[in-house]
Amino acid sequence: MEIFKTLGLFVVTAFAEIIGCYLPYLYLKEGKSFWLLLPAAISLGIFVWLLTFHPQAAGRVYAAYGGVYICVALMWLWAVDAIRPTVTDWIGVSFCLVGVIIIMYGKQLIRNI
Predict the structure, then answer these.
(1) How far apart, in whole angstroms, are the C-alpha atoms of residue 74 and residue 92?
(2) At a CB cut-off of 8 Å and minimum separation 6, what does 13 contact?
(3) Which of 66-75, 85-94, 104-113 has the lowest mean pLDDT?
């Protein structure tokens, strides 16, 4: 159950980071309103705050989070940019998510064998 809590927290964290980066992208590349930078800054603040909820060492959390971020970024690609991920995208994400579990819970998994 803890694995699902951790993955869920990582997913919410990834969305906060992606929104915090996507809004300035819209302002800079697409000429959207300057005011998008305010919710972007708030979203990035939430992103940092959410990373503090993990009991693991910061470096381990950042490494594992990266794998979940990749998965959420592909979902964003599909939902927002309307570009369907390829089979190789999904294979790559699968490897990343296995890596997340190994990084975050590898010691516990090995200990229980």
Answers:
(1) 11
(2) 47, 50, 51, 65, 68
(3) 104-113
% of the chain surpassing 90 pLDDT: 65
**Structural domain span for residue 92:** 2-111
The DSSP secondary-structure symbol of 84 reads: P
Q: What share of the chain is helix, strand, coil (3-state, %, to 5)?
A: 85, 0, 15
pLDDT in tens, 4-39: 888 889 899 999 999 999 999 999 999 999 999 999
pTM of the model: 0.83
Helix (H, G, I), strand (E, B) or coil at 86: coil
| Torsion sign, CA atoms 105, 70, 53, 60 | positive
Task: Give the total number of structural domains in the chain.
Answer: 1
Could you please report the per-residue DSSP string of 22-74?
HHHHHHHHH---GGGHHHHHHHHHHHHHHHTT--S-HHHHHHHHHHHHHHHHH
- Tell me if 100 sits within 8 A of 67, measured CB to CB: yes
pLDDT recorded at residue 1: 67
